[in-house]
């Protein structure tokens, strides 16, 4: 791209916010906008051609997470999946109890659904996390009581990449006969996700986080688990999610799931190696930095890192001028103090919490991208530190 007469690179490292639609996905979707436009609920030829495509997408999603196709409900996004799982379960199970357990670092779609339910008379326990963003399983088990109907704990954190011990949470939930929902929006396509092995009862997927388009997602609901729908209408999705199917999106989600099965090795190999190269490169070139999140239990593509004395958003602006797209916890996820609720919950020192940025690597990233960032970042950080009153105070003392 030309910018002020100069060629500027474009490096996208914000794949935890959204990903590009993959070519194979787009190609599979296109016929369903025009030639195969039918409504899959129609019994005539136009509908039937399309309902087969929805069925096979359902099979592709089910295969990726190891469940039955009829256990998949197509939704419009991850936020809808989380709301349907949490509000739908709470309402359905109300006569059994009114207590829900979640964690302090969940996505707003989970936390705000729980907040809404609190206003409706439910009790919510929000588990704290340690400095690496990890929950304490003993604390989780101790929080379960007679009234507990649901545990909602995410698989992989969108800001830090910290991976919760989902199988252990599942075992605790099962032992106490409590329903277990996990927001796996960041995990699907990046780490192996198996709902049987993990003992998960409900699991949220969002297409646009792994190469499918925006506006489509899925919720896995274990067979036999009742759910009150969010909205009422037609009989689609076994009466749990009314509304005409987003056929192109669903077809795209199916293909993305199929591709994800073979991509897992690349995520664990090449992407992890690139992330580690970026992390090690920053740590060795720039003093007074801190990696946020769990050292080992972490998504392979995510690096959340703080640079003392300066603001994360300022770093992002300077990176953007060089064509690098990253993000900061303090942008759209911010609470009223302008600080990420995730980083805040980890007890990170406020100055470090405001200076964090997140790199979310994706399949399109190369070693060249990482090396370019390692080349420009030390200068950006030093320039910002030279302007920072905190830095000069620290230098003076
Ligand atoms: C992006 C995200 C969501 C929301 O998904 P949408 O499809 O954008 O609504 C939920 N949970 C996590 C962990 C996410 O990263």
From TrEMBL:
This chain belongs to which protein, by name? Cysteine desulfurase
Origin: domain of life: Bacteria
The entry's function note states: Catalyzes the removal of elemental sulfur atoms from cysteine to produce alanine. Seems to participate in the biosynthesis of the nitrogenase metalloclusters by providing the inorganic sulfur required for the Fe-S core formation.
Assembly and binders: Homodimer.
Enzyme Commission code = 2.8.1.7
Annotated catalysed reactions: (sulfur carrier)-H + L-cysteine = (sulfur carrier)-SH + L-alanine
Q: Which GO terms describe its biological process?
A: amino acid metabolic process
Question: Per its UniProt record, what InterPro entries does this chain match?
Answer: Aminotrans_V_dom, Aminotrans_V_PyrdxlP_BS, Cys_deSase_NifS_bac/arc, Cysteine_dSase, PyrdxlP-dep_Trfase, PyrdxlP-dep_Trfase_major, PyrdxlP-dep_Trfase_small
Species of origin = Syntrophotalea acetylenivorans
Q: For the Aminotransferase class V domain, which residue ranges apply?
A: 11-371
Q: Which Pfam families match?
A: Aminotran_5
Q: Does the keyword Iron apply?
A: yes
């Amino acid at each position: 791209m030309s910018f002020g007469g100069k060629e500027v690179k474009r490096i996208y490292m914000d794949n935890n916010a959204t990903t590009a639609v993959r070519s194979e996905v787009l190609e599979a979707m296109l016929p369903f906008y025009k030639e195969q436009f039918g409504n899959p609920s129609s019994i005539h030829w136009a509908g039937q051609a399309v309902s087969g495509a929805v069925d096979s997408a359902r099979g592709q999603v089910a295969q990726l997470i190891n469940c039955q196709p009829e256990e998949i409900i197509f939704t419009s996004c991850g936020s809808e999946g989380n709301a349907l799982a949490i509000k739908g379960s709470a309402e359905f199970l109300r006569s059994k109890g009114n207590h829900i357990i979640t964690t302090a670092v969940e996505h707003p779609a989970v936390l705000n659904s729980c907040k809404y339910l609190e206003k409706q008379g439910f009790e919510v326990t929000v588990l704290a996390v340690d400095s690496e963003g990890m929950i304490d399983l003993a604390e989780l088990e101790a929080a379960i009581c007679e009234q507990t109907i649901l545990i909602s704990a995410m698989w992989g954190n969108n800001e830090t990449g910290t991976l919760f011990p989902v199988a252990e949470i599942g075992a605790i939930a099962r032992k106490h006969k409590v329903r277990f929902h996990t927001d796996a929006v960041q995990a699907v396509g990046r780490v192996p996700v198996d709902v049987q092995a993990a003992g998960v009862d409900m699991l949220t997927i969002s297409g646009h986080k792994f190469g499918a388009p925006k506006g489509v997602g899925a919720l896995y609901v274990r067979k036999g688990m009742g759910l009150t729908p969010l909205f009422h209408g037609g009989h689609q999705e076994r009466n749990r999610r009314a509304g005409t199917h987003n056929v192109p999106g669903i077809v795209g989600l199916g293909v993305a799931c199929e591709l994800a099965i073979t991509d897992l090795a690349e995520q664990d190999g090449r992407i992890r190696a690139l992330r580690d190269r970026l992390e090690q490169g920053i740590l060795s070139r720039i003093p007074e930095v801190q990696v946020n999140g769990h050292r080992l239990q972490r998504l392979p593509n995510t690096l959340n890192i703080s640079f003392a004395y300066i603001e994360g958003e300022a770093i992002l602006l300077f990176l953007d001028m060089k064509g690098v797209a990253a993000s900061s916890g303090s942008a759209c996820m911010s609470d009223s103090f302008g600080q990420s609720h995730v980083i805040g919950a980890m007890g990170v020192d406020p100055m470090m919490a405001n200076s964090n940025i997140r790199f979310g690597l994706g399949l399109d990233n190369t070693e060249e991208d990482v090396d370019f960032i390692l080349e420009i970042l030390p200068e950006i950080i030093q320039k910002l530190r030279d302007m920072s009153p905190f830095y000069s105070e620290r230098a003076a003392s």
